[in-house]
Write a structure and sequence with these properties.
It holds the Pfam family Hydrolase. It is a single chain. The protein has helices at 20-34, 40-53, 59-70, 74-89, 94-102, 119-127, 139-142, 149-159, 173-181, 192-205, and strands spanning 5-8, 15-16, 91-92, 108-113, 135-138, 166-170, 185-188. The chain is α/β, with parallel strands linked by helices. The strands form 2 sheets. A 5-stranded parallel sheet has the order 5-4-1-6-7, sandwiched between helices.
Length: 207
């Protein structure tokens, strides 16, 4: 069956350097600054991080909870969030972005990203993803996150394609497995050059 739509993840695919060690370093510095134990920042904030990933709270709610749970001042919250968004957004994977742009108009294209409240604004001002593709689905705006099959079904519905006519690219094996289970062609992104080659081969094989 021919592929009609191509869907990319953001972190680890269109954005790179979004890695766990950078988050650990960010939190370690702030834990030392706030007099917290190692790992305590995430422990205190985990319910809020989770709520923000599903759009169950606003950015203002997040900021207020940081003041309440971590004893931060408003100025410290602003400073932390600025650093957090720089970590979160990483840097653009230029070769992957160039490929993604080139797929239109032959294919319908979309972004499907597990995200945090505020991500659309932050990534838009840095990378203008809306100019690269036809559709962007942020999971915090939908209240459903990968690998929940409902988020893939939503992408198919909005792109008006059957799962077997979609190619999905992600850096998480569990998300790839979930897509495969629905019949979606899926490619695990580990290294840019190889992933680009895999995408091109898959599109050629299903042209």
């Amino acid at each position: 069956m021919s592929i009609q739509a191509v869907v990319f993840d953001i972190g680890g695919v269109l954005e790179i350097d979004v890695i766990e060690t950078m988050e650990i370093d960010l939190n370690k510095r702030w834990e030392q600054r706030l007099g917290l134990q190692a790992g305590e920042l995430d422990t205190r904030m985990e319910p809020i991080w989770h709520a923000g990933s599903l759009g169950e709270c606003t950015e203002e709610d997040v900021h207020q909870e940081m003041e309440k749970r971590l004893g931060m001042t408003q100025e410290q919250v602003s400073e932390y969030m600025h650093e957090m968004w720089d970590w979160y957004c990483g840097r653009l994977n230029e070769p992957m972005a160039d490929l993604f742009r080139s797929l239109r108009p032959r294919y319908k294209t979309a972004i499907l990203s597990n995200s945090f409240v505020g991500a659309r604004r932050e990534e838009q001002q840095r990378y203008h993803f809306d100019e690269m593709c036809d559709l962007i689905i942020y999971t915090h705006e939908e209240g459903i996150a990968k690998p929940d099959p409902r988020i893939f079904e939503l992408a198919c519905k909005r792109l008006n394609v059957q799962p077997t006519h979609m190619l999905f690219v992600d850096d998480s094996q569990k998300n790839i497995d979930a897509a495969h289970a629905l019949g979606i062609h899926a490619i695990l992104c580990r290294e840019t050059e190889q992933t680009i080659a895999d995408i091109q081969a898959c599109l050629l094989a299903h042209s």
